[in-house]
Design goal:
By secondary structure, this protein is of the alpha/beta class. Helix content is 22%, strand content 37%. Strand 1 and strand 2 form a beta hairpin.
Length: 463
């Protein structure tokens, strides 16, 4: 009985243990299943997040690409617009490759800079690309459209100045005589317009493009070709007395056309006096300080001539090209080929070849001498000086008490080209019995070096 009772108790214990083991297994299975469910759900959620993130990243990338496309299209558009239009632009849409992108002018930008926010959109994402464009002055070709007297023009009488269908722009739109009387309606062949402030290059800007640079301290030559070599020479020193037609005394250079003068563009640091003789001048004379041209004294009727290099060929069909291009190894590279011939007509209009259309240019005062009346005192029997090319005083006397432009003598001056006296504070004077005849300039000789507004792309960044 005792064994039976013990067995029964053991049986009950065993049954209890077996029941607990089943629940534990079931619970384990449930927990594992639940864990797998949670892991699966987490994995799926993670996948969805990754997919969403990938989609968002893709959309953002596409939006950035759209903004970049818009920037390129905007740059192309703005480069073809005049500055006056660019200033007015506030916002707009631009289309490229079938895609329309919006842009807006940025709230603030540096001086002479124009900033636009280009907005690209894709799949709900957007990207803002800030583009910075810069306006710079770049040396290039400009076209002279007439003569300029920015500080005003005072003449002796209505007969002092005449033209051949030319336009003169002048301060206050007035040409006056010595008494202050306006002569506009009494002038022959001249239309008078009001001068509006304009940017001009000064003489120093053209110094690197000269062939010979003269200074009391040193002389240098550059931009020269030798036969068969199309590479312009670098800057090198030369002895200032190499040319007996060019000398320095006191504070002034003298250029004597009757003697040896090199072909090309001659640039002077100091004042220069150009003595025009029976031998014509065929050069460009540029001075940082001032230019005075003179002719010999005397009462015998005589004609004198001064040519900028390119008008020399234009006016004189039988021109000796060596007077323009020189000989090897001193051929001006701006407008000549290495075989000593002139460049073609279209090239001659471009910078720096068009420097050859400048006869005289200075930052200071330009003074032109017409000599005296002929031996019988008749105005029609007077000395005459013919200038072929453009004469420019780019800054003027600057309040020194001198005139920016001055015409002296009692003879006749003829200018085939434009005379541009751009100093705004100093009146140009034509006194005495001088006769100035402004003749219409040929289109080719109106091409001059000058500044153009160049639109360039600057920095870009995503905001």
């Amino acid at each position: 009985m005792h064994n039976a009772a013990e067995h029964q108790r053991s049986s009950k214990k065993s049954i209890s243990f077996a029941k607990q083991a089943g629940i534990s297994s079931l619970l384990f299975i449930v927990l594992v299943g639940f864990s797998l469910t949670v892991l699966t759900a987490g994995y799926m959620s993670s996948m969805r997040n990754l997919q969403s993130s990938a989609t968002t990243a893709h959309a953002q990338t596409q939006a950035q690409m759209q903004a970049m496309i818009g920037y390129q299209a905007l740059a192309e558009f703005l480069k073809n617009q005049p500055l006056a239009n660019i200033i007015k632009i506030q916002q707009g849409n631009i289309t490229k490759s079938g895609t329309t992108i919006h842009y807006e002018k940025a709230a603030s930008c540096a001086v002479n800079h124009y900033c636009f926010d280009v907005i690209g959109k894709s799949g709900g994402a957007s990207a803002v690309l800030r583009a910075n464009f810069e306006i710079i002055d770049q040396l290039s070709k400009t076209t002279a459209t007439g003569s300029i007297f920015a500080g005003g023009l005072k003449v002796n009488s209505k007969d002092t100045i005449s033209g051949d269908g030319v336009t003169i722009t002048v301060k206050d739109k007035k040409i006056v005589d010595n008494s202050g009387k306006t002569l506009n309606d009494q002038l022959t062949g001249i239309t008078v317009e009001k001068y509006e402030p304009t940017s001009f290059i000064d003489s120093e800007v053209l110094k690197p493009y000269a062939n010979y640079v003269f200074s009391k301290d040193k002389c240098e030559k550059q931009n020269l070709l030798s036969t068969g070599n199309n590479t312009p020479s670098a800057k090198e020193r030369f002895t200032c007395t190499d040319f007996n037609g060019i000398s320095f005394s006191g504070s002034e250079w003298t250029v004597d056309t009757s003697k040896n003068i090199p072909a090309g563009v001659l640039w002077f640091e100091e004042q220069v006096q150009v003595k025009i003789t029976s031998t014509p001048l065929v050069s460009s004379i540029i001075s940082k300080t001032g230019i005075e041209s003179t002719i010999p004294n005397g009462n015998t009727k005589q004609s004198y001539y001064a040519y900028a290099p390119l008008p020399y060929k234009l006016v004189r069909n039988n021109a000796v090209i060596t007077k323009i291009c020189g000989v090897s190894p001193a051929i001006p590279s701006q407008y000549c080929n290495s075989d000593g011939t002139l460049k073609d007509a279209e090239e001659l209009k471009e910078f720096p070849a068009n420097i050859g259309n400048i006869l005289f240019m200075t930052n200071g005062t330009v003074e032109l001498d017409s000599g005296n009346l002929g031996g019988n005192g008749n105005k029609e029997d007077a000395n005459s000086v013919d200038f072929f090319g453009n004469i420019i005083a780019s800054k003027g006397a600057g309040g020194t008490g001198k005139a920016s432009g001055k015409f002296v003598g009692t003879g006749i001056i003829k200018i085939q080209g434009n005379i541009m006296i751009t100093g705004e504070t100093d009146v140009t004077e034509m006194n005495g019995n001088i006769k100035l005849k402004l003749l219409g300039a040929d289109d080719a000789s109106s091409a001059l070096p000058g500044y153009i507004k160049s639109f360039t792309t600057g920095t870009i960044r995503y905001m």
